[in-house]
Amino acid sequence: MLGSRIQEGRWISILEYYVIQLYYLVISIFNIKNLTHAIIALLIFLTFLLLRKVFTRYIFTWLQKLSNQTNYTLDDKILSASEKPIQALFLVLGLYLALLYLPLSTALDLVFSRVFRSVLVILIAWVFYDLCGSNSLLSDELKEKLNMDNMLTNFFSNLARFLIIALALVIIAQEWNYDVNGFIAGLGLGGLAFALAAKDALANI
Description:
Elements: H1 2-29, H2 35-68, H3 74-101, H4 106-131, H5 137-145, H6 150-175, H7 181-203
Helix pairs in contact: 1-3, 2-3, 3-4, 4-6, 5-6, 6-7
């Protein structure tokens, strides 16, 4: 448990480092000469860094204590799956609002908005992806209600994860105005293959 917390802390520190470097890169590339705008934008970003720390140390810890008092595992699994994505959301949202405050061009603001919406899709998909792992809520429900063995639960967990990733890619591609009709058609064929495989697997139970 302690080791996983240390790894999470390292991961967040690395993410913070690269986000800050990206901020200074934007400042240097686009030659932001108005020091007031740059300082206020930096304060916006630092505020969200502070909010992330407050959320992690206090609010999230409080939510975990509440979930530990219940007899259900659903809230525990949701909290566990959403912890890292929410921490990343604070960093991304702070950077996005800081960049929007800077006096950049309308075209750049549009690009930043698309990037931000794409990252939101990734973070939401990240939560559901973790909820569909081999030891996740989905696996527990399949084992309990349908009495499935580990092989079948792993199969359906991987199927759910695949669909989540595919759906996220489709939404992001549409955000960037890509034609996804061919990709969706390919997903239909892939879904049919998965359905046939699942049918054969269930027939052998």
